[in-house]
Write a structure and sequence with these properties.
By secondary structure, this protein is an alpha/beta fold. It has 3 domains: about 325 residues, TIM Barrel, CATH 3.20.20; about 45 residues, no CATH class; about 70 residues, Golgi alpha-mannosidase II (Immunoglobulin-like). The chain has 14 helices and 19 strands. The strands form 4 sheets. Strands 1-2-3-7-8-9-10-11 form an 8-stranded parallel barrel. Strands 12-13-14-19-16 form a 5-stranded antiparallel beta sheet, covered by helices on one side. Helix 7 packs across helix 8, helix 10 runs antiparallel to helix 11 and helix 12 runs parallel beside helix 14. It is globular and about 85 Å long. The structure holds calcium ion (2 copies).
Length: about 500
């Protein structure tokens, strides 16, 4: 009997009851970026809030996303909240820590992770640390008990410094009211450890790091030392944490930051109206785009096997992507390309309904158009006047809407693209208007093909069969080793 029991235990351990590796969302699931104030207002005061997000979790799950990036939620003196007053609290207008706990729990029930914006390059000038530091420096009372070393003070003016008086300046690269933290300081790092602990304990999956390129004034080596330290610390607390950094710089500089070991960085080179995706769509050159996406994926893997790029069309600092194309089919194709790329796609809220907004930053962060008669109010300094009339409510009913296109493509990604243990390769058709990427696994290969042109293309293709597709006009077919694909369409194949 005892022997049988032991045998049973052994078999169980080997085949069933052994601790299952948790499915992580770090590898290829779709994230959704939210500016909380503009997303959804739950209590009618006009300001979007955490409870508003909770009310929209069904919508987000239906869209197919697996993670949310919340732009800063901490108390702040500005509408955008990138000048933090208290890293361990929630801005009153957004809700409470209790609301946040509920958000994390409810999101989990919807299989959605939450990452929060972590703004470490600078604090608000009204943050207690800076007030204490500035007072001590001004009164010449700096010692080990106050915060003088938390920031960079100087007796002479330097680039990026703000004047207190003729003999005293402090570093504030972005704005006088956002003094740069001294991230080399061990006490500052202790504070950061406490902040990270606080939010991980509340259940966040990880962090979106604001402005790491500016941590040490564009010094990649020093930035990477800090990022490596932070990564090690965060992973020691939560092994499956996910962190993505915003290095808004040229592609090589972004790539160099992967040496830090951080999970991901945003691929700015692919984004925006002059980025790789939009440029490829304009030139209709699919070869260049597929080669870029595969090469960049592989270059990152060479630096860090665990890392992955985060790809997006536009974010809160850029003009809305719907304006990149007047043609609805091209708009849809741009979405298909990045949502089916070998990277982590980040959808900026409202992008899925084609919201517009450009010019001053407030215009890029307008209220989400739900069409329910009680949308949040847009930032008060927004001056964007172009009418946008097609709400979530309307687009859900229209099977050809941009929103339903996003849903379809995200679900295709979730269903067919597995980017764990995969080899990524560009597939070059004869016709250069086709952009194709192969996802090669041990016993199967999946290929995504987009037609970047406005013409139907017929090209040679042997060995593959069609498994699914995004039909914008005609359905794609394969007959006698010839793939026929309609304008701006996407097809998923396997072999
Ligand atoms: Ca509210
Ligand atoms: Ca800095």
């Amino acid at each position: 009997m005892k022997k049988i029991l032991i045998l049973f235990l052994l078999v169980s351990l080997l085949f069933g009851c052994a601790p299952k590796k948790e499915a992580t969302n770090n590898n290829g699931s779709v994230y959704y970026e939210i500016f909380v104030a503009s997303f959804h207002d739950s209590d009618g005061d006009g300001v979007g809030d955490l409870n508003g997000i909770i009310e929209k979790l069904d919508y987000l799950q239906d869209l197919g996303i697996s993670g949310i990036w919340l732009m800063p939620i901490h108390p702040s003196n500005t509408y955008h909240k990138y000048d933090v007053l208290d890293y361990m609290a929630i801005d009153e207008s957004y809700g409470t820590i209790e609301d946040f706990k509920v958000l994390v729990q409810e999101a989990k029930k919807h299989n959605i992770d939450i990452i929060i914006d972590l703004v470490l390059n600078h604090t608000s000038s009204k943050h207690p640390w800076f007030k204490e530091a500035k007072d001590a420096v001004m009164n010449d009372t700096c010692d080990t008990t106050n915060k003088c070393e938390y920031y960079h003070f100087s007796e002479s003016i330097k680039k990026g410094y703000t004047r207190i008086h003729d003999q005293l300046f402090y570093e504030a690269v972005f704005w006088s009211e956002m003094p740069d933290l001294n991230l080399a300081n061990q006490d500052v790092r202790k504070e950061i450890e406490s902040i990270v602990d606080f939010w991980l304990d509340l259940g966040v999956k990880g962090f979106r790091l604001d402005a790491p390129y500016h941590y040490f004034d564009h010094n990649t080596g020093l930035n990477n030392e800090f990022l490596a330290w932070l990564t090690t610390y965060v992973k020691s607390k939560r092994e499956d944490a996910f962190m993505v950094g915003e290095v808004w710089a040229d592609q090589q500089t972004v790539l160099n930051h992967f040496e830090s070991g951080l999970d991901s960085f945003f691929d700015f080179a692919s984004s925006n109206t002059d980025g790789r995706i939009v440029s490829a769509l304009r030139s209709k050159n699919g070869h260049v785009l597929s080669q870029y996406l595969a090469d960049y994926y592989n270059a990152i893997k060479n630096m860090n096997e665990e890392a992955i790029s985060s790809i997006f069309l536009s974010n809160h600092d850029q003009g809305r992507s719907a304006a990149f194309f007047l043609d609805e089919q091209q708009r849809k194709l741009a979405a298909s390309i990045y949502l089916l790329a070998p990277a982590m796609p980040f959808v900026y809220y409202g992008e899925e309904i084609g919201m517009l907004g450009s010019g001053r930053d407030e215009n890029k962060r307008l209220a989400m158009v739900w069409g329910e008669g009680k949308d949040a109010k847009s930032p008060k300094d927004a001056d964007y006047t172009e009418e946008f009339n097609s709400s979530v409510k309307e687009q859900l009913k229209d099977k050809n809407s941009l929103l339903n296109h996003y849903k379809k493509v995200i679900h295709l990604r979730n269903q067919y693209l597995d980017i764990q243990n995969v080899k990524i390769q560009a597939y070059l058709f004869k016709n250069k208007h086709l952009c194709a990427i192969e996802y090669i696994h041990e016993n199967k290969t999946v290929m995504v093909v987009h037609n970047l042109s406005g013409e139907t293309i017929v090209d040679e293709l042997a060995g593959y069969k069609i498994v699914d597709q995004v039909v914008l006009s005609e359905k794609a077919t394969i007959q006698q080793d010839q793939l026929t694909i309609a304008p701006y369409s996407t097809v998923i194949l396997n072999k």
